Structure formats: structure tokens, C-alpha cells
């Protein structure tokens, strides 16, 4: 009897000991995503080549006239509404601000200006409160201007979204959460210059892309979102999403079809400290495509400074400026549009410096223009101040880059988060490049 009891105790000890040993490994397996086998990734890539759809999305400010034959891309408003309404399980939003309802700024006169923003707000509220779609939002904090975080807070209070506000400076020492994208069901997304703001739907000039039915890039964007989402509670060191290797980058892009022609695509992000392993830094992507250009480069950005403009004292930031000057020396034709909105006296000096290189090479040009969106006839200081180009993109004869960052050192090396999509077409026909230029 005693021997039987001893043996039973031994068996219990052995089982308990085994459980204690094996549990940590099971936990690691649950937390850590196992790397995908090459053959599985190859099958997914082939599937995405056939299913992925990519379209340019644009906001044209109200009351701007064009020729009768002008064909406009899909509007930002329609792209967002489609993404939100077609989401089946989850919708993840990264927002620098959430000011969709004009009433936060304009009061009673909002009804004349923010119909599109109000519609997006109501659509988010309806979809989120239905409980059928898990809506999450990461948003910059603290807000810069009046009403910047107002609708995110309201949507959260009504239970329509689960929201985290992020002060990036807590983790990076400086910077803002400046990423701008919406991801639906890990397969469709918007990425571009537009804020979650009524002004980005009818007053500012904005450019982005709508990618649909593209599981490969959708999963990538989903993980980029989770890097930000997990940052709030886990920081950098314990951020599991940050450890997931990027599937596509500058050296290994995803091949899809854009308007019937082959294209190579990948997502690049900033800052480097928050980039997944193998993720291309968006600054490297920009400089790389400028250096690769042989014929032309068209650039359209709101602000351009070869400086860390928001530091005190200011510091030189040469990366992009030097690349543009190298292109001038090679004889590339360059056209540069900028708003010169912030610190215009400083910005225009550097732009004039670039413009002075026009004619340096017999085959090249360096043209610079300050682009101002025409004001409305309505006497509203608030409205007229907001009518501006807010674009952040460039195009060469073989590639286009559409991003969320202004071109100064603060946005690439100053802790601020940003993202860009890089699309390359090198075949005989390049419809995406032709549409973007």
C-alpha cells in the first residue's frame, strides 16, 4: 500500500514537472507568430498578384474649376466611406487628428462646409455601434488645435470605437503620431496625406491610395497599426508587433498589377526605431528613387526644409536636398511644387537655392513653384486659412511615392511616425506613373 502511494506521488510529480517545463514554451508559441514558410508566402504572393487593386485617391478643394474633359480620381470621401461600409470584421484607424464634424471649429456655420466630414463621422458611429465590426483608433496626443481629438473622444464615449491616444515623445523623446491610414479586414486600406478631418475632404488638396482585396499588403498595414497600438501599453522593448519581420521592402517588393501592367509595391515607414525588421525606412525609399531617376522627378509637398525645423536650435538635414542636387547634376528634369505654408521666409530661401540650379545641366531643369489654393469668395478667415495643398508625394519615370510626411528632418529622424507606399513600374507601359505625374 505504501509502495503504491509512493509510486502515485512519483507519477504526480513527473506530470507536474512536465507541465511546469512545457508551459513556457506553449506560451511563447501562442504569443510569437511563427515565421511563414517560403512556399506559403509564394502562394499568397501569386494570389495577391491576381486580386490586388490599387487606385489613386484625391481631394480637390471646393470651388476650383477645371476643363470639361478633366477626369478626376476617386475622391478621398468616397474611398473612406467605401472602406468603412465594406468592413466585415475589423476597421483600424491611425489618425493624427479626428475632427470630422466642422462644428468643433465653425460652430453653427459648419453645415455649409463639413457635410462630407459629418457623413464619415456618422458612418463610423453607425458601424462601430453595430458591434459587428471591431473599430480601433490610435490618435496623436496632445492635440495641436481646437477640436483635433474631439470626434475620437466622442466615438469612444459612445462605444463606437476602442481608442488609444499616443504621445510619441514619451517613447522617442520628441515627435508626433503623424501616420494616416485606415485598414479594413487586413486586406483593404487607405494611406495618404489626408487627416481624419472635414478640411481634408473638401478644402485641402490631398493625395493617397486605396488598395483593395490585397491580403499581402493589408496584413502588412495591419501589423504597422499594431506596432502603434501596442506602443501605448507595452512600449518599444516589449512590443511583439514590432518584432514581426516585414514581408516586403525595397529589395523584395510585392509584385501586383496596376491598371493592367506589372508593378512592384511595398510600404515604408518612420521612425527607424519603430520599424519592423526588414522594413524600408521611408527616407531611404525617397532618396533611393530620386537617385534612380534618369529623366524626370515631380515633387509636390506642403512643406520643404533641409532642416530639423521644429528643433531649437535648428539643425541641418541634408539627405533629400543633396539627392535633388545630385539629380540636377545628372541632367534630370525636376519640377517642384510646395505650399511653403509654415515658416515661409525660411522655406522659400531653400527653394530659391534649388531654383538657382536651373540651367546648370544642358539637358536638365530645376523648376520651383509655390502653389496656393485659390480662396473662396466667402469671407471666412478659418476657411481661407485651411485652403492649401497638403500633398506629400513624388513621381519619377519609373516610380511613385505617396506618403504622410512633410519633407523636413523632423518627420524622418525626429521621432515622428509616418508611412509611405512605393509603387514602381518599369515596363514599356507605366499607367500609374502617367496618372500621377
Automatic annotation (TrEMBL):
GO terms for cellular component: endomembrane system. The chain crosses the membrane at residues 12-31. Pfam families: PLDc_3 (PF13918). CDD domains: PLDc_vPLD3_4_5_like_1, PLDc_vPLD3_4_5_like_2. GO terms for molecular function: catalytic activity. The keyword Protein transport does not apply. Coiled coil: none annotated. Keywords: Membrane, Transmembrane, Transmembrane helix. Belongs to the phospholipase D family. This is Protein CBG05531. It comes from Caenorhabditis briggsae.
Amino acid at each position: 500500500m505504501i509502495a503504491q502511494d509512493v509510486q502515485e506521488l512519483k507519477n504526480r510529480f513527473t506530470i507536474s514537472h512536465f507541465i511546469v517545463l512545457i508551459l513556457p514554451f506553449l506560451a511563447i508559441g501562442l504569443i510569437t507568430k511563427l515565421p511563414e514558410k517560403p512556399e506559403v508566402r509564394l502562394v499568397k504572393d501569386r494570389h495577391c498578384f491576381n486580386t490586388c487593386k490599387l487606385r489613386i485617391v484625391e481631394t480637390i478643394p471646393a470651388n476650383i474649376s477645371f476643363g470639361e474633359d478633366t477626369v478626376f480620381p476617386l475622391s478621398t470621401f468616397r474611398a473612406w466611406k467605401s472602406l468603412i461600409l465594406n468592413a466585415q470584421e475589423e476597421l483600424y484607424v491611425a489618425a493624427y487628428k479626428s475632427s470630422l464634424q466642422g462644428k468643433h471649429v465653425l460652430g453653427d456655420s459648419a453645415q455649409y462646409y463639413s457635410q462630407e466630414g459629418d457623413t464619415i463621422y456618422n458612418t463610423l458611429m453607425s458601424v462601430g455601434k453595430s458591434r459587428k465590426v471591431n473599430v480601433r483608433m490610435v490618435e496623436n496626443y496632445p492635440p495641436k488645435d481646437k477640436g483635433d481629438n474631439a470626434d475620437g473622444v466622442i466615438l469612444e464615449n459612445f462605444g463606437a470605437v476602442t481608442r488609444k491616444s499616443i504621445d510619441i515623445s514619451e517613447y522617442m523623446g520628441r515627435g508626433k503620431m503623424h501616420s494616416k491610414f485606415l485598414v479594413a479586414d487586413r486586406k483593404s486600406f487607405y494611406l495618404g496625406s489626408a487627416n481624419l478631418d472635414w478640411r481634408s475632404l473638401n478644402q485641402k488638396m490631398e493625395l493617397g491610395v486605396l488598395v483593395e482585396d490585397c491580403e499581402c499588403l493589408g496584413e502588412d498595414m495591419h501589423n504597422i497599426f499594431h506596432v502603434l497600438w501596442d506602443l501605448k501599453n507595452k512600449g518599444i522593448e516589449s512590443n511583439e508587433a514590432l518584432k514581426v519581420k516585414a514581408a516586403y521592402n525595397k529589395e523584395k517588393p510585392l509584385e501586383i498589377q496596376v491598371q493592367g501592367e506589372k508593378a512592384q509595391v511595398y510600404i515604408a515607414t518612420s521612425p527607424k526605431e519603430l520599424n519592423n525588421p526588414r522594413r524600408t525606412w521611408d527616407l531611404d525609399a525617397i532618396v533611393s528613387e530620386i537617385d534612380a531617376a534618369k529623366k524626370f522627378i515631380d515633387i509636390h509637398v506642403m512643406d520643404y526644409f533641409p532642416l530639423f525645423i521644429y528643433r531649437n536650435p535648428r539643425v541641418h538635414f541634408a539627405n533629400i536636398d543633396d539627392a535633388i542636387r545630385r539629380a540636377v547634376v545628372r541632367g534630370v528634369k525636376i519640377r517642384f511644387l510646395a505650399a511653403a505654408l509654415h515658416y515661409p521666409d525660411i522655406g522659400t530661401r531653400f527653394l530659391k537655392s534649388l531654383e538657382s540650379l536651373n540651367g546648370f545641366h544642358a539637358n536638365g531643369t530645376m523648376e520651383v513653384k509655390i502653389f496656393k489654393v485659390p480662396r473662396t469668395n466667402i469671407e471666412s478667415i478659418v476657411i481661407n486659412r485651411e485652403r492649401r495643398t497638403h500633398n506629400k508625394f513624388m513621381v519619377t519615370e519609373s516610380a511613385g511615392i505617396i506618403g504622410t510626411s512633410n519633407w523636413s528632418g523632423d518627420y524622418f529622424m525626429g521621432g515622428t511616425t509616418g508611412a509611405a507606399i512605393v509603387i514602381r513600374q518599369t515596363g514599356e507601359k507605366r499607367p500609374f506613373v502617367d496618372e500621377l505625374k
